[in-house]
Amino acid sequence: MERLEGMISDIVFKNEDNGYTIAHLANSDNEVVIVGCMPTLSVGESIEVEGKWTNHKTYGTQFEVNKFMPVTPTSLEGIYVYLSSGMIHGIGEKMAKKIVDKFGVSTLDIIQNNPHRLSEVDGIGQKKIDQIVKSYEENRELRNIIIELSPYGITPNYCMKIYKKYKNKAIEVINKNPYKLAEDIRGVGFKIADNIASKIGIEKNSKDRVSQGILYTLNQSLGNGHTYLPENILIQEAIKLLEVKGELVKECILELAYDQKIHIEKKDNQHLIYLIPYYLSENGVCKQIIKLSQHEFKDLNIDIEEEIRVVEKEEGIKLANNQMLAVKEAIEGGVVIITGGPGTGKTTTINTIIKIFENNNQEVVLAAPTGRAAKRMSETSSKEAKTIHRLLEMGYATDSDELQFMKNEEEPIKADVIIIDEVSMVDILLMYSLLRAIKPGTRVILVGDSDQLPSVGAGNVLKDMIDSCVIKVVRLTEIFRQAQESMIVVNAHKINNGQPLHLNSKGKDFFFIRKNTNEEIINEIIGLVSERLPKFYNVDKLKDIQVLSSMRKGDLGVTNLNIELQKHLNKPEKYKVEENFQRRIFRVGDKVMQIKNNYTRKWENEDKTDSGEGIYNGDIGYVYHIDKDKRIVYVIFDQVKIVSYTYDELDELDHSYCTTIHKSQGSEFPVVVIPITWAPPMLLSRNLLYTAVTRAKKLVVLVGDVKYLEYMIKNNRINNRHSNLSYKLNKFKEEGLLIK
Ligand SMILES: Nc1ncnc2c1ncn2[C@@H]1O[C@H](COP(=O)(O)OP(=O)(O)OP(=O)(O)O)[C@@H](O)[C@H]1O
């Protein structure tokens, strides 16, 4: 390894995604090209680099950097260049000159140790001093983290994420418990954390390590939808991960339970191991369901049949028997699940229930798990529907900096009736938060299609509640005439029943285009989306058509289809600003999706007369503007909400010309295009196909090989999730805890 020292005189290239940088390093003797991961580098900075000389075919001799360290500039010129480089917010070129003229070589010492003295410089007030100190500190801390962590193979990009999460506590957190990184930082797995741990000197058989491995295994299993793991499975998986003896794992499981980090529940001869929040939520859901169902509901003193007749007359419909039953249960029973596939009249039933309650002065509140599902519910009911998170008023309590729900047992939701749609998407944690915020006496109506994919989060709540037979369930099974005319609806039910589909009926809305190779499928999809569908169906290629894929990777996965579709749906143009992040290009006009809930992300309209906060997982928007100087991408959602993302926040956004079927849950689109090709069996499943097809309102086009379509229809291997909700609800019922 060789070392060089000098000042950065130019930055030739910087990849914002992974920090790869090509720069010129100058010292009194010469100027050389250095390359490597140096994300925080800026012109004027003095650094020391460690690495080796290489010879590049095209670019000649360059220095490949393994490790870099900032050195405090000592020369007046160095200090001036550093301060004026733009790295310290609040100091421009003029101000830098003034400061250096005043304090000379002691400038950096003053900023660090006696910042109040900056006020001696003309034009610097307290506010400016605070800004300079904060920015200087952040810069220093980030550098320290990079220097400390890069030997463990953590890329600078992750260092930035780590810094954002823990701020100046980062090194302390990592030294105390490196495994915390695996829990908190998306993309850092147990293996990386374990590597740091071993370098810090944590032994393979250390109980800390094994305990963290057990917690990590349980955390990972949440990603597969499990609310607990049977002990034998947990032990097997932990042994595989940690390469230690089973006895030690067992011992650590007991210690974790003793420390109340996990809960062990006995069921028959098995031990079920839960992470605490999941145990509390599962029990809490059971308890709340019992409480809510047992309560005496206020008698509305109405003739239900007469009330139904009034609404039927107003709407010009006649409810089917099961719809009628659902309405009666909602009013008389008080807690009910209404379930059914597409076109079975769920919306019509909800609307009838709303009308009857409102005709009788009852306050009805509507909510759904995602922003898009709530928007759709608002549209079909002509009444405001909120996301469940908004209904529960997610926010910061005065004495805490953690987001939490303001609505709970003490401060319940004010309503006589609460109707929740798309309940299949609600996981066990959210269901508990919701139920605990409902006051006994409030009527609760849960609506959903239990054949859709289960929630992304742990649990199989809707299905378990239905299977338990503890809550009254009304199943809507009749497909109404109007709905029967749609092959989308008819085929969706056929998929659910494992039957062959009606393909390509003339004048209908469900087509299969046979293509064999992946290349043919991609070309066909591009042709359909960019030209033929907009032309023949008069739909907007960006807003109305959604391509859905079951997978992320591969030629026909979301990542590649987004790259291919972007080339045709939003071509590069001189007037369109774009920024290249190597893996992906963000360009003005791009269709994008927010991929995680961000309850505090601010938005405002163009003339800044309206603003708010909260952008949710699955929200689709368009890149509106890119400010390369400020390093900000602006995205517009719902035609008016403009949201800014700094470059290092772009991991919250994905292109969405194509999205995964999982992400499309709860959303509907006029036209859906789905590639049908080989994939691992768990991604060729009936409920994935069913969920994808039922997202379309006007037209479904499948493109690919019909043998995989047939395989999907047959493959009813329901992803079995470890969940104890149904069993527990029944157990409580048998033990006489439920009156009804
Ligand atoms: N009792 C009824 N008599 C006649 N038509 C009905 C009846 N109930 C619903 N419909 C019609 O059937 C179609 C589907 O109904 P609705 O939209 O309520 O079902 P849904 O289960 O919400 O469907 P989706 O899940 O596809 O939105 C609509 O056109 C609706 O007008």
Describe the structure in brief.
The chain is an alpha/beta fold and 740 residues long. It contains 27 helices and 30 strands. Adenosine-5'-triphosphate (ATP) is lined by residues 317-320, 323, 340, 342-348, 480, 482-483.
What CATH architecture of the largest domain do you see?
3-Layer(aba) Sandwich
State the oligomer.
single chain
Number of helices: 27
Strand order of the largest sheet: 11-10-14-15-9-16
SSE-based structural type? alpha/beta
Highest-level CATH class of the largest domain: Alpha Beta
Assign the CATH superfamily of the largest domain.
Answer: P-loop containing nucleotide triphosphate hydrolases
What is the typical, i.e. mean, pLDDT? 89
Ligand catalogue: adenosine-5'-triphosphate
User: Could you tell me the strand content as a percent range?
Assistant: 15-25%
Low-confidence stretches: none
Fraction of residues in helix:
25-40%
Distance between the termini: 76 Å
Number of domains: 4
